[in-house]
């Protein structure tokens, strides 16, 4: 069966402010030493499974030019532009409608655009196993991540028995929300929970049947969009129907309610790059434990992340800081406060300082 990839690329990446902005969010930034952007990494790592002709990018209409600039060879009709931000369920549904129109049915790899993976060979083998499971009947597959510490910032997947006739494939018992620390420790100790990575594999026919069952109003809108594809009314219908969709995650809208869901534990060096701290997990540190980029002089500086460009940044006698300098804004943040970067965004919105967003 035809295998296609759906890359979800509509996020704002607010925790990577001040480099990530409304006009240039995280997925279009380079955060690694090779100079490639997050979305380029995402497409490149699956090229042995999916050709660029079968990659679909779902993104905000404001980012069309960025997608075209960064992904050469991508067919223009494979850039699906959301008229409004409506979370992951409408995103997935929109892609499924376009894929059904083009191919009738296919196996969809649904992937976020802003994750990094260290061990690509293991990742590809995991996807191959997931594709085999998804091709059977109406199975849906979610890729879980084997946890190695009690993370409170992720949702979890509770899995049960191994699937008959398949190795390392387990029935999903339930999806659980982000836990407190004690609950996260219990999940880790049980050995029956995985981090929810937000990566999914299913047939187009399977997921659209789930929309029809669990999100019927949205499904009716998707049918109207599908019918209009290729016509002179396509943009107008997409604008109206998509904007009317309620904001809904695919997890809450479908995955938490559906049956026949399986998970594959992934151990391929996954990182959701959720904050500036990720830079020290994927970039080399110097002898003082610093990750430095740009024109920087560091004296008695330890375990810091310093990101600049042409302007000289000099640090003296500091530890455990994140310093990010851009043309019009600078972030200075304690490493244990990275989750509070969003509070800066909130304050900027309240004060109508939109030029910094």
From TrEMBL:
Identify which top EC class this enzyme belongs to.
Answer: transferase
Q: Which SUPFAM superfamilies match?
A: Guanosine diphospho-D-mannose pyrophosphorylase/mannose-6-phosphate isomerase linker domain (SSF159283), Nucleotide-diphospho-sugar transferases (SSF53448)
- The UniProt record lists the MannoseP isomerase/GMP-like beta-helix domain at 294-348
> What catalytic reaction does the record list?
alpha-D-mannose 1-phosphate + GTP + H(+) = GDP-alpha-D-mannose + diphosphate
Q: Which GO terms describe its molecular function?
A: GTP binding; mannose-1-phosphate guanylyltransferase (GTP) activity
Q: Which InterPro entries match?
A: GMPP_N, Man1P_GuaTrfase/Man6P_Isoase, ManC/GMP-like_b-helix, Mannose-6P_isomerase_type2, NTP_transferase_dom, Nucleotide-diphossugar_trans
Q: Which of UniProt's keywords are assigned here?
A: GTP-binding, Nucleotide-binding, Nucleotidyltransferase, Transferase
Domain annotation Nucleotidyl transferase: ranges = 5-285
- Pfam families recorded for this chain? ManC_GMP_beta-helix, NTP_transferase
In the record, biological process GO terms are:
GDP-mannose biosynthetic process; polysaccharide biosynthetic process
EC number(s) reported in the record: 2.7.7.13
Q: Where on the tree of life does the source sit, at the highest rank?
A: Bacteria
- Respond yes or no to whether keyword Nucleotide-binding is given for this record: yes
State the family it belongs to: Belongs to the mannose-6-phosphate isomerase type 2 family.
NCBIfam families tied to this protein: GMP_PMI
Protein name from the UniProt record: mannose-1-phosphate guanylyltransferase
Source species of the chain: Cellulosilyticum lentocellum (strain ATCC 49066 / DSM 5427 / NCIMB 11756 / RHM5) (Clostridium lentocellum)
Organism taxonomic ancestry: Bacteria, Bacillati, Bacillota, Clostridia, Lachnospirales
């Amino acid at each position: 069966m035809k295998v296609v990839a759906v890359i979800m690329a509509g996020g704002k990446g607010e925790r990577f402010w001040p480099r990530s902005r409304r006009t240039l969010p995280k997925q279009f930034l380079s955060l690694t030493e090779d100079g490639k952007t997050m979305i380029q990494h995402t497409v490149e790592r699956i090229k042995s499974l999916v050709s660029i002709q079968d990659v679909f990018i779902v993104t905000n209409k404001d980012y069309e030019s960025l997608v075209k600039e960064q992904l050469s060879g991508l067919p223009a009709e494979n850039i699906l532009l959301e008229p409004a931000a409506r979370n992951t369920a409408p995103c997935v549904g929109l892609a499924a409608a376009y894929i059904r129109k083009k191919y009738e049915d296919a196996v969809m790899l649904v992937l976020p655009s802003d994750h990094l993976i260290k061990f690509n060979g293991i990742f590809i083998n995991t996807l191959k196993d997931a594709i085999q499971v998804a091709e059977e009947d109406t199975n849906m597959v979610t890729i879980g991540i084997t946890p190695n510490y009690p993370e409170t910032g992720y949702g979890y997947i509770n899995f049960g028995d191994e699937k008959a006739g398949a190795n390392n494939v387990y029935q999903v018992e339930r999806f659980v929300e982000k836990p407190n620390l004690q609950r996260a420790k219990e999940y880790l100790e049980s050995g029956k929970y995985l981090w929810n990575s937000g990566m999914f594999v299913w047939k187009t026919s399977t997921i659209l049947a789930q929309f029809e069952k669990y999100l019927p109003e949205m499904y009716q809108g998707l049918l109207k969009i599908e019918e209009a594809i290729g016509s002179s009314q396509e943009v107008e219908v997409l604008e109206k129907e998509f904007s009317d969709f309620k904001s809904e995650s695919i997890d809450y809208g479908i995955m938490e309610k559906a049956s026949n869901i399986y998970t594959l534990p992934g151990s391929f060096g996954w990182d959701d790059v959720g904050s500036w701290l990720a830079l020290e997990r994927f970039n080399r540190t110097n002898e003082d434990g610093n990750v430095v980029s740009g024109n920087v002089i560091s004296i008695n500086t330890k375990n810091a992340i310093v990101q600049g460009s042409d302007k000289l940044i000099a640090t003296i006698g500091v530890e455990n800081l994140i310093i990010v300098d851009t043309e019009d804004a600078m972030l200075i943040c304690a490493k244990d406060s990275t989750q509070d970067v969003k509070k800066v965004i909130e304050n900027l919105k309240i004060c109508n300082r939109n030029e910094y967003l």
